[in-house]
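FIELD: query
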Amino acid sequence: MSDNGQAKFLTGGLMGHVASMSAASSIGLMAIFLVDLADLYFISLLGQAELAAAVGYSGAILFFTTSVSIGLAIAMGALVARSLGAGNQEQARLYATHVLAFSLALSVPVAVLVWVFVPELVALVGASGRTADLATQYLRIVVPSLPFMFCLMAGGSILRAHGDARRAMMATIAMGAVNAVLDPLLIFGLGPLPGFGLDGAAAASVAARVAGAVVAIQPVLRRYGGFSPLRMGAFIGDLPVITRLAFPAMLTNIATPIGAAFVTREIASFGDAAVAGYAIVGRVTPVAFSVVFALSGAIGPIVGQNFGARSFDRVRGALTSALLFLAGYVAAVSLLLFLLRAPLADAFSASGVGRELVFWFCGPLALAFFFNGAVFVANASFNNLERPFTSTLVNWARHTLGTIPPAMLGGALLGAPGVLIGQALGGVLFAVLAVWMAYRLVDAHESGRAERSATTGPVWRWPQWPFSSPRG
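FIELD: result
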C-alpha cells in the first residue's frame, strides 16, 4: 500500500513500476541462483563428474517441488493484490491466512511422497548407477525442508502484493547469504572440521530455506497486520476460491519441470558429460535471466491491483510495458553471455559436448529466452484476470507439444545441442499465442463479455474466451 492508503500500482508510471518491482525481486532471486551456481562450482572442484551430474538430476526434481510452491504463491498474490486494489484490506489479510494454511497443509504430503519415491523419480529423469545413488542421497536431505520453501514463497508473494518488493527481496537474499556462507564450510570443511561433500551442500540448502522463510514472514507480521486467527469455518468457506486459483496455478507451474525433466532425459542419452553441461546451462540461465523470472512475479500485483480497481487501460499498459522491458533486457544479457561464453565454460571445466551446450546457450539460444519471458508475463496476467485455467492450458501446451516433439527431432538431427535448439524453437508459437490471448482477455473484461465472480472466483466454461472475439 502507498503512504496515503491507496493501492500502490493504481497510479504512477507503469514502466517504472514494472522496472522497479522486477529489479528488486531479481536481486533476491539472483542471490538464490548465484548460490545454486556456486553449489555446482564447488561440487565440480571435488573432481568427480558423477557429482555434477547428480546435482543436475536433482535440480530437475527440486524444480518440480519448487513449482508447486510457486503455484500456491501465485494464488496468494492474485487474491491479496485483487483485494487491496478493491480497497478491502481485511479480506486481503484473510486470504493471506487461508492460503498460507492451505500451503502448509499441502506441503507435508508432497514432501513425503517425493521423499518416498525419490529413487523412482531420479530414474525417470535418466539417472542410473552411482549418479542415481548420489542424486537420491542429496534429495533425501533437501526434500523435508519443502514446508519452509512454501513459507518463503507465500511470504514473498504477500509482500509483493503490497508493492513491497524490497522486503520480499531481503528474504531471498537472506536465503542466498546463508547458503553462500555454509556451502564451502560444509562441502570442504574448515581446519580440523571435516567436509561432507554433496551431503554438506544439501544441508546448506536446508538451512538457507529455513532462514529465507523466517525473513519472509517477519515483515508480514510486523508491517502488514500479520494473519487473521484461523477459523475453520471461514477457512473452509474460502477453499473454493483458493483452489480455483491454486490448483490451476500449480498445474501450470508443474508443466515447466516436467518439460525440463524430459529435456534432461533426452540430454542424458548423450552421456554424463552432456548432463553436466546441461547442469551448467540450468544454473546459469536463472542467474542471467533472473530479471525475467522476477518479471512474472512483478507483473502479477500490478495487473491484479488495477484489475481490482477496473482500470483496464492500465492493465493493458502494464502488459505492454512488461514486454518492452523484457525485450531490452534479454537483448543486453544475450550479448553479455556471448562475450563471456569461453570464460564461463572454462570456469566449470566444461569439455566436449558439455562445452558445446554452453556455447549454444550463450549464443542464439539466449535470445530465444524472450519468448519464455513472454509466456511468463501472459500467464501471470491470466492468473490475475480470473482465467487461471488458460494459463494452465498455455503452459502445458508449451512444455509438451512445444517441447517434446521439437526436442526429440532436434536431438535426432543435431545431437545434444539439437535438444536445446528444438526446445527453444518450440516455444515461439506458444509465446505469440499467449500474448495475443492476454490482450484479448483484457478487452473481454472491459467489454463485460468475460464471465467473472469477485466473490466465488473465476468461471470456466468450454468453449469460451479467449477463443471468441469480444469486439466482433
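FIELD: remark
The mean pLDDT is 81.
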